[in-house]
């Protein structure tokens, strides 16, 4: 029996290369750390292919450039850290742009066009192999090896092993990016939760007591961070006057919530003018407009002043839906309207105060942002003002807490489990 020693050696060499491929792929895919994945790719490639130099570039999609992430070897270590290449620039840029493996030997090199390292001109470059790192038809980066430690050029087997390692590395890089995105999302979610907790801390922790009426209010966010505001204001020199403020900033994200934090500070800084509601809201608007001028941010606001001392209601509106005042004896609704613009639109705005006599016993007043009126169900139908009025009418004579609960329960039944598009802030006053 004749044994082909050369064929046996080739088979053994291929088997060893195959084992190296499995080992390399395992090492490269064993971590979700981008730094570990890149380092593992570089070490395995330089070790298994006997490469003298290795450079790894990643794609910066925001600038449409490659940037040097890692580089080793006599030539590789001389490449400036963070070096950037445009599509088609040098060999890595060509591999990225053409989305293919580029294998260049010394006879094919054009130093001015191809070489990157400042030492390349004084050191002989015998062979260079450059492969795009692709996953799901997306180029994530480029890997390049230059020269073999024992001399010679990279052959077809070297290219096959290098391509296999690069394919596995691209998948691992993509997984590392996904992992980083997930960690960033979790961190952002945590920040949102902490911010929302802070916002809730700034809301009233209980409803105030005022002779002759009962008050119940709540503010419910539709997103992770609410953009509505609810607050109570009481003058320092008396207990028979109370201000109720509801406000709604444009948007439903972190920016809206931050606007509400600023608005709350401005409202409390001007609460000394509660006896002159139009002056108070005018001052608040001037302060708020300084923050939002030219940025397109604004908010609606309604201030209701319960003045038991002078037996009257007073209010100022800045673009908010009118409050609803129901008199069960006459079975009639009065809309507490106001014509002022939203806060933040015009810095120098004069607001008008309106008033009416104190409501009769049994009356109910509801102040709310537009979230309750515009809440919709999957078929697109809105909850609407008429439905709000019907619930108020059917629960008149009950405490404010019961009226508020009935409104929110009916809203939940109407909208179902669908996520709401707007925050809902509502304050109910029942008069004894």
UniProtKB/TrEMBL annotation:
InterPro entries: Bact_Sigma-Reg, GAF, GAF-like_dom_sf, PPM-type-like_dom_sf, PPM-type_phosphatase-like_dom. Keywords: Hydrolase. Residues 33-184 form the GAF domain. It comes from the Bacteria. Gene3D superfamilies: 3.30.450.40, PPM-type phosphatase domain. Residues 210-431 form the PPM-type phosphatase domain. One of its GO terms (molecular function) is phosphatase activity. This is GAF domain-containing protein. It comes from Oceanidesulfovibrio marinus.
């Amino acid at each position: 029996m004749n044994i082909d020693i050369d064929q046996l050696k080739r088979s053994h060499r291929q088997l060893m290369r195959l084992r190296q491929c499995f080992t390399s792929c395992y090492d490269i895919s064993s971590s979700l750390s981008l730094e570990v994945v890149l380092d593992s790719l570089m070490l395995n490639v330089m070790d298994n292919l006997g490469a003298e130099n290795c450079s790894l570039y990643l794609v910066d999609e925001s600038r449409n450039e490659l940037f040097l992430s890692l580089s080793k070897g006599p030539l590789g270590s001389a490449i400036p850290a963070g070096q950037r290449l445009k599509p088609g620039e040098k060999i890595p840029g060509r591999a990225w742009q053409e989305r293919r493996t580029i294998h260049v030997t010394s006879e094919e090199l054009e130093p001015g066009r191809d070489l990157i390292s400042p030492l390349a001109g004084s050191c002989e470059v015998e062979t260079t192999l450059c492969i795009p790192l692709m996953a799901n038809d997306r180029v994530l980066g480029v890997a390049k090896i230059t020269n073999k430690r024992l001399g010679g050029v990279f052959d077809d087997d070297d290219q096959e092993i290098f391509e296999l390692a690069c394919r596995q590395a691209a998948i691992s890089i993509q997984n590392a990016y996904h992992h980083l995105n997930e960690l960033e999302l979790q961190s952002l979610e945590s920040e949102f939760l902490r911010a929302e907790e802070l916002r809730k801390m700034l809301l009233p922790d209980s409803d105030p007591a005022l002779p002759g009426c009962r008050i119940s209010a709540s503010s419910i966010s539709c997103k992770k961070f609410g953009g509505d505001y609810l607050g109570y204001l009481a003058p320092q020199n008396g207990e028979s006057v109370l201000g109720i403020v509801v406000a709604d900033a444009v948007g439903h994200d972190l920016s809206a919530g931050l606007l509400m934090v600023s608005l709350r500070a401005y409202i409390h800084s001007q609460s000394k003018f509660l006896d002159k509601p139009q002056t108070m809201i005018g001052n608040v608007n001037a302060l708020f407009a300084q923050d939002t001028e030219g940025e397109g941010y604004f908010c609606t606001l309604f201030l209701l002043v319960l003045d038991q001392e002078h037996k009257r209601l007073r209010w100022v509106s800045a673009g908010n839906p009118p409050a609803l005042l129901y008199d069960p004896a006459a079975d009639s609704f009065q809309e507490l309207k106001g014509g002022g613009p939203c806060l933040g639109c015009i810095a120098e705005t004069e607001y008008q105060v309106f008033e009416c006599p104190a409501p009769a016993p049994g009356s109910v007043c509801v102040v709310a942002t537009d979230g309750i009126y515009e809440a919709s169900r999957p078929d697109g139908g809105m909850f609407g003002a008429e439905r709000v009025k019907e619930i108020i009418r059917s629960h008149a004579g009950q405490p404010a807490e019961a009226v508020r609960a009935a409104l929110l329960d009916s809203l939940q039944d109407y909208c179902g489990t669908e996520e709401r598009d707007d925050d809902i802030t509502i304050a109910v006053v029942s008069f004894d």
